[in-house]
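## Example pair
The file below holds two records. Each record gives the amino-acid sequence first, followed by its structure token line.
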Amino acid sequence: MKASLTPACTRNRFANLNHALTFMRGLMVPALVTLLTACATHVSQPPKLEIDRSIQALSQNSRVEYIVLHYTSASTERSLELLSRRNVSSHYLITDDTPPKIYQLVDESRRAWHAGVSQWYGSAGINSASIGIEIVNFGGSGTSWSPYPEAQIDALILLLKDIVQRHQIKRHNIVGHSDIAPQRKVDPGPLFPWKRLADEGLARWFDEAKAAQYQAEFKRKGLPDIRWIQSTLERAGYSVPQTGELDKATRNVIRAFQMRYRPRLYDGQPDAETLAILKSLP
């Protein structure tokens, strides 16, 4: 004979079962929460990088070796657009406003794209080791060139002194775009006041007394041959072919040299005055 459960017994058994399940949930839920919390804590706290910078080596210097000067061939507004939104840049831009404004467009610790294919004293890729300064100036060609306002050059000198002091840049490494890329560039052009920068200790200049002496000597004895000219230009930092011929590439380098040191005549011809300046260059 089968036993039967009375309603009261059934209710008691369900009550006991419900109580048991509640008790189990009470044990399992906190344990599950604890497990998930531990996992979350482990995932959200990766190992922390710790670097001790309390000791600095004495044997070090700046990565910056050169300062390259350019003109923009454009207005301030257009120059800012080109240098900040296009595939070209510079560390600084000096406007032609009154007074001029200096923009820093690229941090000095980063490489700006201003020099392009370039070389100076045998080192290529000048972008990687230089600070580029663009000067708002429309440039020119032939005998028509835009002058540089006095206040603009004053601002440039202040900026150069600050950069040179911080990076210990040598005078012969303050160059124009035409110095490092004479086959394709002419900026900052023949009206740029290199002599004034030299007087401030911010550019290389030649010994004028020696230049006069050498010029008289060249007129009396004749000019050196092309191989001497090419090798002497190379020793002065320029990238020039060593062909022994007065080819177009060599004339372009001579023209760049003349624009900087003898800007009243820059025809690319190696005359006595040009070679005398070259010989007297420190």
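Second record, same layout:
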Amino acid sequence: MIHASVTLPRLSQSDHPSQKSIADNFFDDGPHMEWLDIISVNRYIHACYQYQTGQMPAQSWVRAFNETEHWWPIVLQHLLIGMNAHINLDLGIVAAETMPAGELADLKGDFDKINGVLANLVGDLQGELAEIWPLLKLLNSALGNVETAIINFSMEKARDAAWSFAEKLSPLPTPQRKQAILEKDEMMALFSNVISHPGFYGSLIIGIIRLGERGTTRQRIEILE
């Protein structure tokens, strides 16, 4: 049985960054942000359960879980494909489910703050990936600020797209909402192919990185936890 946690690092409830931010009163509306967090985690857990029991989760998650069967994807690819499903698909759905249709706008300020939580994780992630691929330490030294800015920019764009998706879903009745989610899922599943197969030169670089990655799958998960 494939354990889907090879795709995303596991976090205990007390260590989860959004839970810590809620406890520290980082958000204006802690109760709704806690509910958003619960729905988001439950969607991931449910997708894992569906996949492991032979059911069919969202195609974006299927692509992420299927990559765990392959040797060549590097750790960063696993993370990006998981983030594609978690942010580009699920986050907009979760936001729409957290608030009644007429009150979604009230969540916007706290929703934007999510990027602050994610951005704080980038530095830690760079260091953790460098433990797995030691050469990355040299690249972090030379390009650290640039790389961080690029990653944060990408997260900001993904978050903005997720909010637009939430605005689209929020007023829709259930049948139309389900259809919109299916269409978005299909789009994001196709995008995951770009991450998995980045062309000849991209694949060549990824192959070099993969040959230099250290540790077993379990050891890498422990580093990322």
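Notes on the second record: The radius of gyration is 18 Å. The longest helix spans residues 136-169.
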